[in-house]
């Protein structure tokens, strides 16, 4: 909001959003204040037992009437680790920072207050995981995703040296990339927002 509006308008807009959130929170809190139970449940001991003893994890569970592999079984942990490992290098630095920040917030909260094996406790990481899957599919489908995004201190030439095209198709690839660079330079000139 601050990029498109003056500071005063941005402060007013954020204040309206904050007041709306407070009104919704108070409405929900007042509606459910007479229900028994505490605000949060502490599940750290159950989480530690669940993580330390993988054989205690249920292999299947019934969700919406269907039997399937448990959400945090060893199989799914291996699949998720592989997807993140193979797609991380294709994410832009902003998405990587978001993922690190979300993980720093989400994992401790999940360990302390989440129920063991409950995937919805990791909901801050859903968007990042979806983007990692998209990056993997893009890299798998064609040349567009083959060049990894460099880390903050690394140049694009250093990070893509191992992915440089070889053989007869390399001229075609370089012509396509130079056309894409010319197009993006033209788009940046036409863009009204200063960078």
Q: In terms of topology, how is this protein built?
A:
Layout lengths: L6 H25 L12 H9 L7 E4 L2 E4 L4 H14 L5 H21 L12 H16 L14 H5 L9 H21 L5
Helix pairs in contact: 3-5
Q: Explain this structure to me?
A:
This protein has 195 residues and is mainly α. The chain has 2 domains: 1-37; 40-149, no CATH class. 57% of the residues lie in helices and 4% in strands. It has a two-stranded antiparallel sheet with strand order 1-2. Strand 1 (60-63) and strand 2 form a beta hairpin. Helix 3 (74-87) crosses helix 5 (126-141). The longest helix has 25 residues, at 7-31.
Give a brief rundown of this model.
The chain is mainly α.
The strand count comes to 2
Largest β sheet strand count, sense and barrel closure:
2 strands, antiparallel
Helix-strand category: mainly alpha
Strand content: under 5%
Q: In angstroms, what separates the terminal alpha carbons? A: 16 Å
Mean pLDDT: 76
Oligomer: single chain
Strand order of the largest sheet: 1-2
Q: Helicity range of the residues?
A: 55-70%
The ordered H/E elements are HHEEHHHHH
In angstroms, what is the radius of gyration? 23 Å
Overall geometry: flat
Question: Keywords, please?
Answer:
57% helix, 2 strands, 2 domains, mainly alpha, 195 residues, two-stranded antiparallel ribbon
